[in-house]
Task: inverse folding
């Protein structure tokens, strides 16, 4: 009989493991948004993604239960790849109701850590401290709190003696005597599951919002002689909740600044950090200089000794060392080799691979194109689906005509070729090594190595044509 027992053990979480419940079902009325609150972003990442990332540092994804409701499908899809589980709270009747709905998922665990989907700065270290304190106190409920200058909008902590708490009072239910309390409820708690669910069903909707407030459980447990304690967070900023767009902007600025500070501490110069947006995952090498108003997004990697000049936006892009990005470049999903020079105003679209020391100049657009070492396309070109060798010169205004209205075709330009200005290369086509293409040519067939291709109307000079026309016009005027 040992086998079925074993299988059951795998399905059910062991009672010593903790569950993490993330409250993420609310609508976020105060954001005045048509989109779910927890999908609004700070530092390039949805609020809920920040919270899940912190949760995953404490527990495996299978023990993390996100409670979703408003626009549940969109929220589920947005974070599905994190592997967390979902509980549907179809009607959002309050934070207490959210946990009631999640009861079947949470009850098998001995403890549950409750996080808020709209409190994104929480650090795993603080949650570890909270869990340790909860265990040490053998508490039924442990509340993470903070002492703040302006407690407006938050629930307030009514302490009894020492660490013990008698109740959490919501802003709208505050009595005059409680108005001075500056210790706020973060909305983050640890519960012993048994007393939590023994008392949770007693919550009522007798309050300003006609909702089941999870915060009321503190007074219920306290009255039932269960131990309720509070632990203050070291940095109050960690527990800032997002309820308005202004708070989103403030928090975003804080996180962006922290990223810039981290980079500067590691040897990157950022001339005006308050004007730059650099996503959390971005890595930048030493002595690189980031000028004002630059964005470096997604999984971008920038080497050392680069210079990114103003108004450039790099997304999911890798730059080697000593790359110069002149002002106004848009670079997306591309790789740029050491010593290359881009811009001003270059547009590198996904799949562009620019070789070492190559130059891509103003108003040059590239897409799915490889440009070899030291090659130059300095002005006004479109290079799409092209493989360009080393030491190639692409004249101003050169266009690869890669699209016939149905399919894309490729252009190959071999090492050392010289493409004259305003050439149109009608793909599929190959220009051989060291070949020349005359300016203004429309190239429809392959050009062999070392050949010169000219494909344009021949020039005709009509001697004296202008003089004759003027004489004819003068004669006509006399006759009138
Ligand atoms: C809550 C606390 C308050 C605390 C503050 C900290 C309550 C009653 N109040 O207030 O004491 O100071 O957080 O930020 O809990 N949610 C659901 N289902 C629902 C309702 C809400 O999942 O039915 C989710 C929301 O999506 C949100 C979280 O719970 O992520 C908190 O809800 P919210 O309405 O923002 O509570 P606050 O008014 O901020
Ligand atoms: Ca909130």
Result:
């Amino acid at each position: 009989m040992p086998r079925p027992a074993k299988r059951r053990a795998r399905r059910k979480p062991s009672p010593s493991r903790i569950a993490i419940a993330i409250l993420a079902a609310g609508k976020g009325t105060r954001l005045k948004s048509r989109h779910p609150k927890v999908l609004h972003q700070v530092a390039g990442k949805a609020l809920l993604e920040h919270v899940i990332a912190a949760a995953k540092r404490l527990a495996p994804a299978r023990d993390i239960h996100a409670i979703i409701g408003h626009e549940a499908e969109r929220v589920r899809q947005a974070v599905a790849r994190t592997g967390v589980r979902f509980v549907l709270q179809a009607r959002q009747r309050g934070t207490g109701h959210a946990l009631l709905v999640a009861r079947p998922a949470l009850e098998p665990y001995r403890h549950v850590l409750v996080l808020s989907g709209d409190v994104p700065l929480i650090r795993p270290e603080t949650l570890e401290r909270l869990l340790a304190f909860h265990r040490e106190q053998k508490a039924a409920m442990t509340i993470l709190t903070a002492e703040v200058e302006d407690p407006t909008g938050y629930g307030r902590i009514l302490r009894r003696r020492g660490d013990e708490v008698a109740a959490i009072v919501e802003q709208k239910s505050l009595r005059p005597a409680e108005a001075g309390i500056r210790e706020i409820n973060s909305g983050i708690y640890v519960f012993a599951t048994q007393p939590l669910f023994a008392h949770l069903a007693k919550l009522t909707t007798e309050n300003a919002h006609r909702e089941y407030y999870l915060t009321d459980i503190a007074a219920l447990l306290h009255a039932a002689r269960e131990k309720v304690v509070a632990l203050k967070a070291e940095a109050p900023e960690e527990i800032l909740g997002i309820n308005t767009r202004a708070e989103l902007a403030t928090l975003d600025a804080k996180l962006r600044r922290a990223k810039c500070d981290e980079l500067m501490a590691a040897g990157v110069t950022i001339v005006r950090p308050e004007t730059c947006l650099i996503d959390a995952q971005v890595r930048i090498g030493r002595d690189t200089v980031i000028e004002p108003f630059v964005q470096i997004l997604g999984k971008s990697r920038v080497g050392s000794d680069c210079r990114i000049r103003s108004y450039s936006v790099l997304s999911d892009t890798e730059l080697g060392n000593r790359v110069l990005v002149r002002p106004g470049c848009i670079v997306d999903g591309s790789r740029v080799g050491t010593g290359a020079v881009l811009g001003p105003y270059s547009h590198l679209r996904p799949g562009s691979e620019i070789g070492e020391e190559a130059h891509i100049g103003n108003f040059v657009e590239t897409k799915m194109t490889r440009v070899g070492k030291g090659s130059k396309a300095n002005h006004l070109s479109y290079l799409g689906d092209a493989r360009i060798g080393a030491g190639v010169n692409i004249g101003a205004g050169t266009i690869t005509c890669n699209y016939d209205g149905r399919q894309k075709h490729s252009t190959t330009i071999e090492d050392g070729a010289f493409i004259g200005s305003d050439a149109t290369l009608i793909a599929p086509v190959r220009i051989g090594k060291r070949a020349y293409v005359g300016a203004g040519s429309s190239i429809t067939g392959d050009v062999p190595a070392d050949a010169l291709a000219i494909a344009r109307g021949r020039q005709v000079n009509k001697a004296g044509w202008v003089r004759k026309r003027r004489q004819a016009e003068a004669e006509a005027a006399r006759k009138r």
User: Anything to note?
Assistant: The radius of gyration is 33 Å. Confidence is low (pLDDT under 50) at residues 1-10. Residues 23-26, 67, 69, 89, 92-95, 97-98, 116-119, 154-155, 168, 170, 184-187, 213-215, 241, 243 surround uridine-diphosphate-N-acetylglucosamine (ligand 1) (CB under 6 Å).
